[in-house]
Structures are given as C-alpha cells and as structure tokens.
Design goal:
Blueprint (H helix, E strand, L loop, with lengths): L28 E12 L6 E8 L1 E6 L2 E6 L8 E7 L7 E12 L13 E8 L8 E2 L5 E4 L18 E4 L24 E2 L9 E3 L6 E5 L3 E9 L5 E4 L1 H4 L9 E13 L3 E7 L9 E4 L2 E2 L3 E2 L9 E7 L2 E13 L3 E8 L7 E2 L6 E6 L5 H11 L4 H8 L3 E5 L8 H6 L2 E5 L4 H4 L10 E4 L5 E23 L4 E7 L2 E2 L2 E2 L8 E5 L3 E6 L4 E11 L4 E13 L7 E4 L2 H16 L17 H15 L2 H12 L21 H18 L2 H21 L28 E2 H20 L3 H22 E2 L4 E2 L2 E2 L11 H9 L8 H9 L11 H13 L3 H17 L29 H10 L12 E3 L8 E8 L2 E9 L3 E7 L6 E4 L7 E6 L9 E3 L2 E6 L4 E8 L1
Parallel strand pairs: 5-12, 10-33, 42-46
Antiparallel strand pairs: 1-6, 1-9, 2-5, 2-7, 3-4, 3-6, 7-8, 9-11, 13-36, 14-27, 14-29, 15-23, 16-22, 16-24, 16-25, 17-21, 17-23, 18-19, 18-22, 20-21, 25-26, 28-36, 29-34, 29-35, 29-36, 30-33, 30-35, 31-32, 37-43, 38-41, 39-40, 43-44, 44-45, 45-50, 46-49, 47-50, 48-49
C-alpha cells in the first residue's frame, strides 16, 4: 500500500489477497474466507479494527459480527472503516475472520479494478506497535464453498443474486477452535498473498450506518404453490462482450439455439421480460419466425411471450437478439398446455443443452448471422455455423433463477392453519411457525408484510432437514390482492438448509415491504422461528418535523421523510431496491431535504465531492457515480453544481467551498468553452438531456432551453461562490457568461407564437414547436425570462395551459412546487401536494413513488415505490406551511412566514447548521397564535399572515409593550431574538 505515516490507523498492514490457485470468478463473483488467530491480553484500553477492501468485506471477531464495507468510492482511493471491538475481544485466543467478496465486472456502485483484496489492522488504543494484528502473508484463506458461483444479476445496476448452501460451509471458521477443527479440509486453506498493490487509503468521512431490527407485522398470505418447470437462464455477457468489465450499454448481436424432442405435438409458451434495457429476444421455431404477444398491460418493464406450436419429434428453437442492451441475461420460463416432458438438448453433445453464436463485426459475419436466422433444423444450423459457435455447458447456465421460479409458481390452496400459529415467526419471541412438507413438485409459500418499506440485511432462524430449499423474494407493493412483481430485477436469494437449527444473515443490502418465503424439497416439518430485517440507513435523527390539522398532509410528510431516510446510505441513492445508485440529480433534492430533516451535512459533502471527482474521467460531472457506466446527463451535472453552492450557502463551510471549487470551475468553463453555439451564444449539449419522463423536445446536440436555464443559474451561483473565496476574476467571468446566456435565451428561444419559451433549437436551426410546462417552470424558477414575460410563464407554473406537455414525475414536480412557492401561491402548492402525493397515501404506500399513474399500465403506477427524487413534501411543508425558511449562513435575521391556507394549525421543525428551528401556529377567525424557538446564533422576524390593517394588537409572551414590530410588504413582522422561545399572539378583526 501507499506508504502510511507511523501513526496512521493502518500503518504496518499490507494489502493481501488470495493465491491464483483459488481464482474463481468465471461467473462474475466469488467469496473468500480469510482468518487470523492471535492471542490478546485484555486491559482497560479500547481496541479498534480498521479495515477496507476491494470489492467488499464482512468482518467477524470471535464469531461476533463487526461490520461490512467499505463505502463506495473511486478506485484510486479506498476509505477504511474503524470499529470499536473492545467488547468482542477475549482474554487469550481470538480469531479475526474476514469474508472478501470479489466482483469480476463493474456495477453502478463499483468500478472493476482486477486487484481485489483487503487491508486490516486491530490494535489497542495508544498501542500501534508489536501487539497489533495486521494483514500480512501469515493469514490463511480459502474459497467459501457455500456461495453459489453462477447466479443471475440482481439488476442492470447491481451485482449478483445471493445463493447460500449451508451444508458445505466451512465448519467453525468464524471462531477460534482447536487446530483439528480444520484438519479435515486442511488442503483448502492456503496462505494469503501480497499482490504488491499499494492503494491510497483514507478514513471514512461519514458515520457508520445506524442499525435497527425490524420484524414483520403479519403473515399476509399462506398458500401451497405448484412449482414451474426449471427456467432456461444464463448470463451471456462474457460471450457477447469477452474481456469487457464496464457497465455501459453495448450494441450486441447473438443467438441461442437448442432442440426439444416431444412424444406428441404440444403448444408451448415462452415468457420473456425487460425489453427496455435487456436482450429483446426474438424466436424462430423450425425455421418459422414467431410473433411476440405483448404483455406490457401487465407491467411497465415490457413483458411479452411467444405461443409456440411444436411437432412430435425433434424441434429446432432459435432465439436471437440484436440492438443496444444494458443487461445480458437470457432467461425464459416454459409453460405447456398439457404435461408433456420438455427438456432442451443439443443432439450428440451430452454436456451442453444450448449453443451460442455471436457474429464477427465484418460483412461476412453479418451475412452469416442473417443466414443462420433462417435455419430450419439443428443439422442445417450446425453445418452453416461450422466452428464459429460455442457450446454452453451446464456450468455456464444459472444454477437457479429464483425470481422466475417464484414469479411463475401457481397457487393451489390456502392453508387450514389457524392464524395465531402462522404469525408466530413475526414476533421475535422465539415462538415458531410450523410448516408441514408439501407434495413433490410443490412448495409452501408465506408472504410476510412489514408495517412499512424497509431496507437492510435479511435475517432468519429455522429448524429444517438438510437440503431444504428456502427461496426468498422481496417486493414493494400489491395491486388489490395481486403481487406487483418486480420484473427486470431479481430481489431474491436462495438458502439451502443444513440439518437442525440454523441462523443466517444475508450479505446483500435489499429493500422491500413484502417478503415471499417459499420452502420446498423437504420432508416432515420446518420450524420457522423468526424472519427479520436489520434496517441499515445513514443515522437519521428525527429533528425535521411537520404536523397540521389535515391528516392526509401528515401522512404525506411521514411518507416523504421515511423515503428520504431509506434513500440515505453511504451516499444518497435513487432507490434502495432497484438500483441503489447515486444519481447526482436525484441527490439535489435529497440533500436539501436531509439537511433540514436530519442535519446530514457530512453525507451531503461526501456525495458532492464524490460526484465532483468524476471530472477526472469525463469533461463534466457524470450522472451517477462511482459507476461502471460512464454517462453524462446535462441537467444532473448542473444540479450537482447548484447543490454544491446551496450546501455552502446553508453551512458557510468555506473549507468545503475551496475543496469543491476547482471541480465546479472546471465544469463551468468547459461548458462555456466547448459547448457554446457561435450564432446564438447558447449551450448546445451533446449529452443526454433528460429532465422529466415526458415528451419534452430535448434531443442530444440541440440548444435545449432548460439546460441553458440551469447553466445560467449555475454561472450566477458559481460567481457568488467565487466572490466569497476571493476569486474575483472568475466571478466576473461567470457574470458575463450569465448575462450572455440570459440575452441569448430571450432572443433566440422565446417563441412569440405561443408567448413562451420553445423547448429547444434543433441541430438544423429550427425552433421547436413544443413549449412544455417543464421548460417554462425551469426558466421561471431560474429567473431566465425578462420581467415583461414573467406573467406568461406563471400560467404554466399554475398548470393553466392545457395544450402542452405537462409535468409527469414527482421529481419534476419538486421544481413546480418551487415555482409555486416563489410566486407566493401557497394554496396551489398545497393542492399539488394533495393531488400527487395524496394518490400514494390513498394507496396505503409508506414511501414515495418514482412515477405517477398514467405512464405505465393500469395497476402498475410506478416502477420504484420508494424513490429519493420524490420526497418534495418533506421539504415544502415545513418550509412553506410552517413558514421556516431554508438555512442561509449569511442571512440574519431570517423571516418566518407561516402560510395557513386552509389549515387551522400546523407545527414544523428543521435542522440548520446553527441548531434546530421550531415553529407552531394556530388560528381562529379572530386570533393568530405562534410559538417560535430559534438557535442562539440566529435572529428572526415572524410575519403575521394577515393584512397589517386587520391586526388590532400584537403581544409577545403575554406582553404588548416594547415590541418593535414593523410593517413589510403589507404585513406586520415581529422581531425574535436568537436563543429564545417566544409566543406571539395577534388579534385579528
């Protein structure tokens, strides 16, 4: 490792890994056990473990769980975690055990390096010397045989599904035990190696995640199911993209072939999913192209199937795909109209059931691909393909596809069991739910319901016979009594039981509200003692608060705050289920909310700096980081810049300002110097110009109006920041750029025909015919419009213009609410919250949805039911209705401006860097009463929400004398001293 100072927490440790003889990443992942036995003399000192890894570690000390990490980061620097392990140490013999999780491909959270390993040091406080336990070549390691080595990807964005076979776990490896404990498998344990890697290390810059055990509320369903035929499932990435380790979308061509021999003719149905980002599979049978039947009315992800008539005898099936894909799993379930045996095979090739062909990129390769598509039987295809095809061996197929196995299981009958016994596994009191064995080919299914969405590590305890299969699937919602299946992701795991009592904690962070437990392959009975989730989120003290006289608004606020908490991890993630990715634009909203709700300034700073580092790889900040998908999304890059300046404005943190400024400057000037159109002086962005999932006219390469409006505001705020850190020359440059963008927008992008901004100027110079609501809102909130045109834009902010593209997502509606607040339209703001987020609350959701009904099919209003970009009410309710302004380090006194609208009372709190602010108010026809508490360093003015002429008297803490109230903008404002709690009463009428 990079040479560390003598007093560094990891000094003396080296980076260790497994020997090449244990290399086992053909399937994309592997898990390795590392152990170190040592003697320890306990004293009064604290003891600490410092540890980091590539890709991930899980650590135990004497069998006690210590932690899992590290936080995500760029591969040029690793953050190490520090744990107080004093309570886990024993006098005498001890064992430190580390499970190293290795990935052979990039995800949306991890960039592949090819240099997996870890470094660790355990020492007593103040003792850095010879008594410390450090990673070196004396450690022992082995491949962990329990983790399945060929499982599906969880999703495009994540790693691989967890399969664990408890029957073959290394006995006692977590605990120090007599040497004979491992003698039976002595050859499996080898010495660790020093690969000579010297990564840069730095301490973790945020707290460890908070943990809380959460039990299910009840068993919602109890049913016996018939298991489907084994899915046909395999990852084709290594065949389509040999040697490629990134997470980018790729243009691919390929085909999978097999034969099926039937005793008699039959009709088969092949189910496929996710043609949005995966392999959109076509099918020909015996040389005849089949027509897909669309099932997208069932789900947003684009489900479809083929109904295939097969003849008696041998049938040739050819599946092919061509186009851009982001996920490369071939997976299908086969259903039959009758019970005819169906088994894929390649005649004459015993070890393989499927063949695979990928064409060369030259003209001959493309011609052969077209020729092979028209093959009518196996012999013809094989003769034409010659030696250019690959046999897919059985070990290249997935060991199981748990999602498809559960998705296509058919309920047979409900249990007769009394509910009081079925619910025993939910209590955590060590009672058990007794589950009798089903018939062959069947499984017992329980669906556990949690009170609200949860996210963390799944745990369970049960007594079962060896070989019992426990398949688990988390999902987010029901539609009526039907499960809303999470097609396109595998939020699943499989656990194969050893004999007797056993307890397991999953290593995969997952989110769900409902949990399917499906048990099969056992005789006798199972005792399921407990199922629980170790909830893991960034520490979220419940400082931010809102409550009012309307219960629906209270539910909406709680729903929004809980969503924000679940999306606060080691960065702000878009959603804790589907992607778990740090989308930079989503985090713009999350950072404002979580600063106010929980004072998450360390997480905000970490997230912004992490995103800023992407300018080492791309010319401007990337859309999601650190990620194997190198992608720039214009608005997300600009929202990052605005989040940076907002963070400095809230906190006054000049150290952060100076650290982030070079990244901010680089992006701002790159755009001006490289993306500016000569004729108009406006920005023509070559990147993805997404703003909303709606029909905005914003193609790559166009002069997009909303991008220019965002950039205009970025230049203004970068100028303010430059002034504060003494970069006055830069500040003037940004000011001139902003003026030019403002002038250009109003000259070239304003469309007099509609009295609004056009969405863009296309690459051919044509002014767009679309003037979307989204474009006008962004121009309004960023003051990109001339004063004489503001009223025209306000019609769009109000939603009064109907013949245009309207806001679609809750994300875009954050900016609509911002526009309504800016315009002083509190009543319309509340109506928007009731209308949009009220639908979620009415559906019994405990979290905020990514989308709204209408984008997808009926019954499926959204993809993700828990999405960080949708938490706007947690921001606007306390800031608008309670009237507490956003934190501003350089503004004092602040103006507290309650907006009662239709409410009788409200109360709210937010956290600021100076302390907690609390406001509560109530009103009648003749009285307005408010209680205000401010931190010591912050003075305020309370604005009475009534015309000054209607206020008969004002008192503070029961006294009317010596109140130096003033009238501003037609309303009384009452001064409040920092550090005080005051009650203000105003008589009205």
């Amino acid at each position: 490792m990079e040479e560390l100072p003598q007093n560094s927490p990891l000094s003396g440790a080296i980076w260790i890994s497994y020997p090449s003889s244990l290399e086992h990443t053909e399937s994309g992942k592997a898990y390795y056990c590392f152990i170190k036995s040592f003697s320890w003399k306990k004293g009064t000192q604290q003891a600490f473990l410092h540890i980091t890894a590539d890709y991930r570690y899980t650590a135990w000390l004497n069998g006690q769980w210590i932690g899992q990490g590290p936080v995500r980061g760029w591969p040029d620097s690793y953050a190490f975690d520090s744990y107080d392990v004093s309570d886990a140490l024993l006098e005498g013999d001890n064992r430190l055990a580390v499970l190293l999780h290795v990935l052979d491909v990039s995800t949306f959270q991890y960039i592949f390096t090819g240099q997996s390993g870890f470094a660790a040091k355990l020492h007593a406080a103040g003792d850095e010397g010879e008594n410390a336990v450090v990673t070196d070549e004396s450690w022992l390691c082995r491949l962990h045989p329990s983790f399945g080595d060929n499982t599906p990807r969880i999703s495009t964005q994540q790693a691989f599904v967890e399969h664990y076979d408890a029957r073959v776990e290394p006995a006692g490896w977590l605990m120090d035990c007599p040497e004979g404990c491992h003698r039976a498998a002595e050859s499996a344990w080898l010495q660790a190696v020093n690969p000579g890697r010297e990564p840069k290390l730095q301490p973790r810059d945020i707290p460890l995640l908070a943990e809380e055990t959460v039990y299910p509320a009840k068993v919602r369903e109890k049913v016996t199911v018939k298991l489907p035929r084994a899915p046909w499932s395999m990852d084709l990435r290594h065949l389509l993209l040999p040697g490629n380790k990134d997470a980018n979308p790729h243009a691919v061509q390929g085909m999978v072939v097999t034969t099926v021999e039937l005793e008699r003719s039959a009709m088969l149905r092949f189910y496929f999913q996710d043609r949005t980002s995966g392999l959109h599979t076509k099918l020909a049978v015996n040389g005849v192209k089949m027509q897909p039947i669309d099932d997208s009315g069932q789900h947003w992800s684009g489900l479809f199937h083929y109904d295939v008539p097969l003849n008696a005898g041998e049938n040739f099936l050819l599946f092919w795909f061509e186009g851009v894909a982001h996920e490369f799993t071939f997976q299908t379930v086969v259903e039959l109209t009758d019970d005819v045996p169906v088994s894929p095979c390649l005649p004459g090739i015993e070890e393989s059931r499927f063949g695979f062909f990928v064409p060369g990129r030259d003209e001959d390769g493309r011609a052969l691909f077209e020729q092979l598509k028209h093959s009518s039987d196996w012999q013809q295809w094989q003769a034409a393909a010659k030696d250019s095809w690959t046999a897919i061996t059985r070990d290249m197929e997935h060991s199981e596809n748990v999602f498809l196995r559960i998705r296509h299981s058919l309920p047979i009958e409900a249990f007769e069991q009394a509910d009081c016994y079925a619910h025993s596994c939910c209590s955590g009191n060590r009672d058990s739910t007794i589950i009798a064995a089903p018939n062959a080919g069947q499984a017992v299914r329980l669906v556990l319901e949690f009170d609200r969405m949860t996210a963390g590590l799944l745990e369970f305890e049960l007594y079962a016979p060896a070989g019992t299969v426990m398949d688990i699937y988390g999902f987010e919602a029901y539609s009526g009594d039907m499960i809303v299946h999470m097609d396109s992701m595998h939020n699943t795991m499989r656990y194969i039981c050893k004999q007797g009592w056993q307890r397991y904690r999953s290593l995969q962070h997952r989110s769900f509200r409902y949990l399917v437990i499906q048990l099969s392959e056992f005789t006798g009975a199972i005792r399921l003692r407990s199922v629980q989730c170790l909830l893991r989120t960034y520490p979220s003290p419940r400082i931010g608060h809102f409550r009012c006289s309307e219960e629906k608004l209270n539910r909406i606020f709680q729903m929004s705050r809980w969503t924000a908490a679940l999306c606060s991890d080691d960065v702000f993630v878009d959603c804790p289920t589907y992607e778990q990715a740090y989308w930079v634009g989503d985090a713009y909203i999350m950072s404002g909310v979580q600063s106010a709700m929980s004072g998450m300034e360390p997480l905000i700073a970490r997230s912004l700096l992490l995103a800023g580092e992407s300018v080492k790889r791309s010319p401007i900040v990337e859309s999601q980081v650190p990620s194997g998908w190198e992608n720039v999304l214009s608005t997300w890059s600009l929202l990052w810049a605005l989040a940076c300046t907002a963070h400095v404005r809230r906190t006054g943190d000049m150290a952060f300002a100076k650290r982030i400024y070079p990244m901010l400057k680089r992006q701002t000037l790159y755009i001006a110097e490289n993306l500016m159109d000569e004729r108009t002086g406006l920005i023509a962005s070559p990147y993805w110009n997404l703003l909303d999932w709606a029909s905005i006219d914003a193609p790559s390469g166009a002069i997009v109006t909303h991008v220019n409006a965002w950039y205009l505001q970025c230049c203004r705020e970068a100028g303010e920041l430059a002034e504060r850190i003494g970069e006055r020359g830069d500040a003037e440059q940004y000011r001139l750029i902003a003026e030019a963008i403002m002038d250009g927008m109003n000259e070239f992008l304003w469309d007099d025909r509609v009295g609004a901004f056009a969405d863009c100027i296309s690459a051919d110079g044509r002014l767009s015919d679309v003037a979307s609501e989204q474009t006008q809102i962004i121009c309004y909130i960023n003051d990109a419009v001339r004063q004489d045109r503001r009223a025209a834009l306000l019609q769009y902010v109000r939603g009064e213009v109907k013949d245009t593209v309207a806001c679609a997502t809750p994300f875009m509606r954050f900016f609509k609410l911002q526009g309504l607040k800016k315009a002083g339209l509190a009543s319309e703001l509340l109506s928007e919250i009731r209308s949009i987020w009220g639908q979620m609350a009415d559906a019994d959701s405990t979290t905020c949805w990514e989308d709204m009904p209408g984008r997808w099919s009926p019954g499926y209003p959204t993809r993700s039911y828990c999405h960080g970009w949708s938490v706007a009410p947690a921001y606007f309710l306390p800031h608008t209705i309670a009237g507490i302004p956003p934190s501003d380090a350089w503004t004092s006194p602040i103006v507290i401006s309650p907006q009662p609208v239709t409410l009788d009372w409200a109360e709210g709190s937010i956290m600021s860097p100076k302390g907690e602010l609390h406001v509560s108010w109530e009103r009648t026809e003749r009285l307005f009463r408010a209680s205000v508490r401010l931190p010591a360093e912050l003075d305020g003015m309370l604005r009475i929400p009534a015309p000054a002429y209607a206020v008969r008297s004002i008192s503070m803490n029961g006294m009317t004398a010596a109140i130096s109230s003033v009238v501003e903008n037609g309303c009384w404002q009452v001064p409040i001293k920092g550090g005080s709690r005051v009650v203000v009463e105003a008589a009205i009428g």
